[in-house]
Amino acid sequence: MPELPEVETVRRGLEPAMDGARFVKVEVRRGDLRWPLPKDFARRLEGKTVTGLGRRAKYLLADLSSGDVLIMHLGMSGSFHVFHEKGAGRGGAPGNYYHERSQHVAHDHVIFHMSSGAVVTFNDPRRFGSMKIVARKDLEAEPLLKGLGPEPLGNEFDAAMLARACKGKKTSLKAALSDQKVVAGLGNIYVCEALHRALLSPKRMAATIASKTGTPNERAARLAEGIKAVLNEAIKAGGSSLRDHKRTDGELGAFQHHFRVYDREGEKCVTPGCRGTVKRIVQTGRSTFYCPVCQK
Ligand SMILES: [Zn+2]
Questions:
Q1: Residue 280 alpha carbon to ligand 1 centre in Å
Q2: Under a CB-based contact definition with an 8 Å cutoff, are residues 86 and 117 in contact?
Q3: Is 2 among the catalytic positions?
Q4: What is the pLDDT of residue 242?
Q5: How far does residue 274's CA lie from ligand 1's centre (Å)?
Q6: Quick one: what percent of the chain has pLDDT higher than 90?
């Protein structure tokens, strides 16, 4: 499943093709994504201009000149491909993915022909992805976005905010950080990676990063720092690959290289001076990778 840094690199990749451009034609080849596309989907987009392309957690939000917002989610296997009408071949697929993406045209479900000359195709073999159009004024009440906690790359996100969210929580730090109400959009990979950077055990009780009244301690500071650092580095790695659209293989390796614990069971811990070995355990049904020596 694409994680937040991947979605952000997709957003950056789509921006030149879509931001400021008008939907000239919208083709819906299969409308039965995670939920059916509305019947008037194409009509509500055609002729409208994208006035901004944003992101909230793992949702891409295209603001339209009509006052609507197009909400897009990649689901498990969704990806966008950008072709240029004057160019040749299957062009850039923005975003750097850990898992390999489908190139099969049978899975091209929605196609945007933009006034920029770009043809933006949404490909999704498993069809867990979704698109929805809502009025901008109703966005705050939108159920998909309503319960989401703070944006980890937002300016306001810091140790104090994290500590308030974890105050009194008896669950593990792993479970707390995986909770979208505590931090929005942080998936399994980056929860593991952030905890390793912060040298905090995924099994530690979440409440222990805050005082009883919810003020942050030094652990909260390390954790907030770790979350931001790991996401920013991943986005940077994804961003750099956008310049080389021809590269399709090797993407997996490029992302994996940046992982310090994720998927590295049995390997030596990379924390300087640590002699530990990365261990895998299962927490709330998901694999957790961590170093039991330096993560306390
Ligand atoms: Zn270690």
A1: 13
A2: yes
A3: yes
A4: 39
A5: 5
A6: 68
